[in-house]
Amino acid sequence: MNFENILIEKNNGLATITINRPKKLNALNKATIEELHTAFEMLEDDAATKVILITGSGDKAFVAGADISEFAHFSVKEGGLLAKKGQEMLFDFVENLSTPVIAAVNGFALGGGLELAMACHFRIASDNAKMGLPEVSLGVIPGYGGTQRLPQLIGKGKAMELIMTASMINAAEAKEYGLVNHVTTQEELIPLAEKIAGKIMNNSSVAISAAIKAVNDNFKDGINGFDTEIYEFGNCFGTDDFKEGTTAFLEKRKPNFPGA
Strands 130-132 and 168-170: what pairing? Predict the structure, then answer.
């Protein structure tokens, strides 16, 4: 499938999505959000794809924010629908994928860009990365999950300060806060992401999908994550991956998971 705003590359179970709007610092417009949804949906349905990596083109930005020109004159109703549709189509969708998604933050991740990175299952960053939610400086608040995910990741107090001051933090601060897992050079960012993805792909994709669901359910209102863990743990016993994993362990060999 041909896309105008993103690139997709597949290599041995790893699919890399690159947001490719360098002249706009990879800002998210309506078309890009729709293309990203299509790409993630397509890769989720591809049994050969075990890990998804998302990054931005160039060396300046992961995603520098949303394309403000598209919604500057929206009404109250239109603004609400923008947030609702965006969350459903991309941000919540990514968070709830059963395929692991790693964000490789290679520069500015601001506003919707940071919200996209936070929707991924975890993040790594290059040492030139800058992150923040500057929406209040425009008279609006984060609308793609930023007010919810940032406190989950770094705590309420730090999140409140970053949101209310519209400040940016650098990669070292983001790691200190727990917003990103690793910081490396620009040159080593993708190799590091690929190395981590390789470690993930050595394990059972079925078990990983179950673990993602169990972890996510801990953060959802009205759902008991412990109950989800019990349910998913039990389900694992009926999978071919469980049979292969335990057999390989007892036979003292590396498992060859069928992914079922």
Answer: antiparallel
